[in-house]
Amino acid sequence: MAAKEVILYHYPHSPYARRVVWYLALRGIPYSQCVQPNMMPRPDVARLGVSYRRIPILSIGRDIYVDTRLQLPKLEELHPELPRLGATTPEQKAIERLLSAFIIDGGIFQEAAKLLPLDLPLFKDPNYFKDRGDFSGKPFSLEALKKIRPDALAEITVGFDLFETTLLADGREWILKTENPSLADIEDVWALHWVSGLKGALPADRFSPEKYPLVYAWIKRFQEAVTAAKARNGKPKSLSGEEAAKVIEKSSWNEKEKTVDVGDPLVVAEGLKKGSMVAVCPTDTGRSHKDIGKLVSLDKDEVVIEIKTPEGETVRLHTPRHGFKLRRFDEEKKGAAKL
Ligand SMILES: N[C@@H](CCC(=O)N[C@@H](CS)C(=O)NCC(=O)O)C(=O)O
């Protein structure tokens, strides 16, 4: 894969975006950023013809990637001259993947997000509640958040306990005993880093460097490594939405066009082929934001569709298979069979 310009659409407090920001910093990959508001509307994203509402969004050349679980492996392929961060042995790869699933699919981060301190200034803004209701697909209220707090704390305790009593218990510095932080560290530190750094999220009598010395020391070590890497690399260039869109529209493709796996059960069930109109959206949050376009390729890991920017330029949108749903889009009936 040839290295093309990398642009990250994100906002600084987004914990998911930090996964990518940290990866880029630790690997020393040059990139530009297009800083976004922390809620909709996001005209800079609409300017790409993208309906997906979540952050971060990553472009490499003219290809646009959503979901950090696809973005990180794509970045791993860039700049082969820079040491990679991903695991190399099958056993380490398994740990890396299982940790990602534990934190994201296993719900550790989702539970951490329920611990937002109730006095956050953001909670004074009624638009925030409306926005997060659209994001999660259910009403979002402070009363509900207060009620579920004890359950969320129980789940977070499981996360802290796991790392303190297993992987970090032998005194290693990094999860895979590497010399420097690896992708496996990013895959699990981000949720604990975020929640422990959020004043008022965790009760100090149950979560502290005294209660979890190994976890807190690991988080601190990780932050120091990222801070040092950012100082080495310098600040990314900031682009306006229009500037970023122009760069993307003028770029060449990051990846060669691939094909549709005609034996894939979804392809068979939906009667799809290259060029079919399809709709795709996440299955967890932000489900109401569907992207509609021509199917370019589909394999076990990834779906690629062709979409148009409002300027009429073609770009390719990549989503992972995991956590996303794709259906044929029937133009006459104006919709995919219930997505
Ligand atoms: N699975 C997605 C989750 C992304 C996500 O939920 N991002 C949050 C920000 S941390 C978001 O988009 N929240 C709603 C918003 O900002 O509009 C990923 O890995 O990228």
Q: What would you call the shape?
A: globular
H/E series: EHEHEEHHHHHHHEHHEEEEEE
CATH architecture of the largest domain: 3-Layer(aba) Sandwich
Percentage of β-strand residues: 15-25%
Q: Report the span from N to C terminus.
A: 33 Å
Question: Total number of helical segments?
Answer: 11
CA-based gyration radius: 20 Å
Kindly identify the CATH topology of the largest domain.
Answer: Glutaredoxin
Provide the helix percentage: 25-40%
Enumerate the strands of the largest sheet in spatial order, edge to edge or round the barrel.
5-2-1-3-4-9-8-7-6-10-11
The tally of strands reads 11
Bound compounds: glutathione
Structural class: alpha+beta
What is the overall pLDDT average?
Answer: 96
Number of domains: 2
- Stretches where pLDDT is under 50 for at least 5 consecutive residues are none
The largest pleated sheet is described as:
11 strands, mixed
Please give the CATH class of the largest domain: Alpha Beta
InterPro entries: DUF7962, Glutathione-S-Trfase_C-like, Glutathione-S-Trfase_C_sf, Glutathione_S-Trfase_N, Thioredoxin-like_sf
Protein name: GST C-terminal domain-containing protein
Pfam families: DUF7962 (PF25907), GST_N_3 (PF13417)
Organism: Trichoderma asperellum (strain ATCC 204424 / CBS 433.97 / NBRC 101777)
